[in-house]
C-alpha cells in the first residue's frame, strides 16, 4: 500500500511540476498536494462538499470529511504507534495537542493495553 501511495504522490508531483512550467510566473505554489492547476490551494469547503456528494451518490452513511482523519488516528493508535509519532503524522506542533483531541481514543485503547498487561502478569494471554 505504501508503494502505491508513493507512486500516486510522485505522479501528482510530476503533474504539478508540468503545470508550474506551463503557467510560468502565473503559478502560485501554495505548497499543498491538493491544488488547482495554477497552484492555488483548494477551498476546504469544496473538498467537504464533494465528499458529502460522493457519499450520497454511493448510498454510503453520511460522515464529515474530517472524520476520516479521526478514523486514521484511531487505527494508527490501535497499531501501537506512540503519541509523538501520531502527532508528527497529524501535523500537530505538540504531542499535547494530539492528546487533547484524541483523549477518548487513549481511554478505550488503554483497556486493551491493561488486558495485555494483566495477561503478562498472570502468565496468560489476553
Number of domains: 2
- Structure class: mainly alpha
**SSE run:** HHHHHH
Helix content: 55-70%
The value of Rg in angstroms is 20 Å
Taken as a percent bin, the fraction of beta residues is under 5%
Kindly state the number of beta strands: 0
Question: Ranges with pLDDT <50 over ≥5 residues?
Answer: none
Number of helices: 6
**Main beta sheet: strand number and arrangement?**
none
Terminal-residue CA separation = 30 Å
Mean pLDDT: 85
Gross morphology is: elongated
Question: What does this entry look like structurally?
Answer:
It is a single chain. The mean pLDDT is 85. By secondary structure, this protein is mainly alpha-helical. The protein folds into two domains: 2-42, no CATH class; 67-122, no CATH class. Helices cover 67% and strands 0% of the residues. The protein has helices spanning 2-23, 44-58, 67-78, 83-90, 95-101, 103-122. It contains six helices and no strands.
Amino acid at each position: 500500500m505504501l508503494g502505491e501511495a508513493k507512486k500516486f504522490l510522485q505522479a501528482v508531483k510530476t503533474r504539478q511540476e508540468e503545470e508550474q512550467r506551463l503557467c510560468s510566473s502565473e503559478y502560485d505554489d501554495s505548497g499543498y498536494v491538493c491544488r488547482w492547476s495554477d497552484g492555488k490551494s483548494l477551498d476546504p469547503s469544496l473538498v467537504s462538499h464533494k465528499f458529502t456528494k460522493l457519499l450520497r451518490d454511493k448510498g454510503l452513511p453520511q460522515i464529515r470529511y474530517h472524520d476520516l482523519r479521526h478514523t486514521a488516528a484511531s487505527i494508527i493508535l490501535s497499531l501501537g504507534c506512540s503519541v509523538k509519532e501520531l502527532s508528527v503524522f497529524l501535523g500537530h506542533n505538540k504531542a499535547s495537542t494530539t492528546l487533547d483531541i484524541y483523549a477518548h481514543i487513549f481511554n478505550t485503547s488503554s483497556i486493551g493495553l491493561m488486558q495485555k498487561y494483566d495477561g503478562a502478569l498472570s502468565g496468560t494471554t489476553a
